[in-house]
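Sample entry (560 residues):
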Amino acid sequence: MILVLVMMIVASALLYQQILGALVIDRDMRFAEIAAARAQAVLDVRAQTLTALATNPNLRQAATRERTLQEASDVLKVFDAGVDVANAEGALTTDSTRLFGTSIAAQDFFRRVRAERKPVFSDAMRDIAPSTTTTETTRYLMVVAVPILDEQDQFAGVLMGATNLTNTAFSAPIRLFRIGQSGFAYVVDRTGAVIFHPDADNLGKNFTDREFVREVIAGGRGGTLYISAEGEQVVAGFVPIGEMGWGVVVREPWSDVIAPVAPYIWLIGLVGLAVMIGATYLLARSLRRIEQPISALALQTTQVSWGNDVDPVPPSGIREIDILAGSFASMAKRLQGYRAGLRRYVGSVTNSHEDERRRIARELHDETIQNLLAISRQFELYQVLETQPEKQVQLVRMQKMLLETQHGIRRISRNLRPPALEDLGLVPSLRELVNQLPQAIHARSQTQLIVRGTPVALGSQKEVALYRITQEALSNIRRHAAATATTVQLDYTSDSVHLDIIDNGIGFVPPDSMTELTQADHFGLIGLQERVWSVGGTLVLTSSPGKGTRVQVRVPIGEA
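Predicted structure, serialized as tokens:
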């Protein structure tokens, strides 16, 4: 939903910009048409003025030419850079001005007017204006040239008038054309050189690097949105001026275009952002309302799969989830009843096993070991009485085997019922187990027992359970973990005892439920779970490959 909202806002902004850009481009193209019409009118008036004068018979005669130009001086004032006459070969025949030296035969406009026999307009021409100072001023001129025809309608010469491109009279129709705050129009000639521009520094510059300028001097019309050399986004409309190859370009900054509507764009963005935030909040709240009870049910499912008791999930207000939670609570309650009976049974079986171990250990200690001791004394007596060396050697060997058997039975007896647990308590027994681990794995393994809190008597059943859990865990570490450091931590609190067994071995991926333990033949872990169940405790197993294993056991101090 957030992504859709963002896409809608962005798409709306882009669509609005495209529509606005199209409208502005069309408007600027219309403005360019108006400016082109004004420029065409000014040029037509100047061409008509020279055409009318070129038909005067006195202009064809060298003797009356200067006087004719003098008489028309008032009309020719619009040509502020001067008026000249050239003969059919392009040689200048008047003394009024010398814009091109003594001949215009090499000028493009002369060749065009001689070939077309109609008025033509030159491109922007650079000229050095006469100056009374040592500094010369660069100016750009535009020449209007009309043909002079004799009585036989043959080409007899050229009448041309030059205009300074910065002349106010020439540029006024376009100079006064303003668009918005900073929009303006400018004119380019057939070569793409600037004929008129509000900024005089741009006169004569070639703008053919701009695609739309190449298009307009080719006779095209239209508009575009482009990035200027200064990095500013600009809108431009362009149209050609008649058939002369010139073009008018109207341009204005995009920032001026959107300035009036910018507050509304920000308003649309803020409203969209507010809607997005509101929708995000409502969506997140709705998701939490659904996700929290489902997560609680998932967690309870994991707890139930490990045989732990769970509390009912609070109502969520969502009918389907509450029905599911109720069904799960009923199932969990039935499982709890079943497991309570199973735990009592497991506890009873475990107690029976311990009682049987205690009986067997006592019989081994009180009967078997005592009988072996008596036999050992008999062997000692026979060794004293025997005189034959060969038989004495046999008696010594048999007595050594008898002693090894005694040690083995004593070890079995201690494993069946460790005397330290009955005589000294849980903590010394655990310390003995921890100290035996490095010797058992024949490696430099760092092991330690950490006891926190004040040890209290837990009762025979719980102490035996904690001892057996530690014994089984250390046995697993010895056989499978390849650990170099093992820590057994025993924490006594006011209401429970916490046993943590941590190693830095190879680790493994713990199963998700007890069922997987039986399928994977991990009966040692099942034995740990059954031991914990038998005393009403909880077991948490944490492990991952390469990061070791942690067994956490919590046993209540009070009655289970």
